[in-house]
Amino acid sequence: MAGGDFSIRPAAVGDLQGLTTLYQHLNPTDPVLSAHMATERFCAILAQPGMTVLIGFAGEIAAATVTLVIVPNLTRNGASYALIENVVTHADHRKQGYAGKLIRHAIEEAWNVGCYKVMLLTGSKNPATLRFYENCGFMQDKTGYQIRRPS
Q: What is the CATH number of the domain that holds 45?
């Protein structure tokens, strides 16, 4: 699809299957969650204040998704900040601008609720991926750190 029939909305209860399919395109080596675990986690996500999973649909197909988290804050005059995570487009729908539309939509939602910044981390070193995020308005001007739980 050439992007004309593309819509964005927050995820709802009936979207779990489409999301789990999309997430297989994000981290293909991750184990598939059991139906019970996926349902439990998805219900927790839907109930989490300030957390929105946005889905972009090409027609009726869940083609791309991003997660937006709005974090209340006691600095910056109480202005919240936002995190964007789990950016993924189904392999069959890449290079059509869907992820960019979703990211710009998420940023606009963050601005609408008064966030003073939106952050996004990527583990990718691919110049095309980095250019993509820069084209969405992000600057690579901070140093990011992470720690992962030992296996």
A: 3.40.630.30
Task: Write out the two tokens for 51.
Answer: 């957390």
The one-digit pLDDT tens for each residue of the chain (151 residues) are 344 699 999 999 999 999 999 999 998 899 999 999 999 999 999 999 999 999 999 999 999 999 999 999 999 999 999 999 999 999 999 999 999 999 999 999 999 999 999 999 998 899 999 999 999 999 999 888 889 999 8
For 147, the token pair is: 């720690």
**Separation CA 83–CA 6 (nearest Å):** 23
Contact (Cβ atoms closer than 8 angstroms) between residue 23 and residue 116: no
Q: Is residue 2 a part of any domain in this protein?
A: no
The token pair at 85 is 């995570």
SS3 61: strand
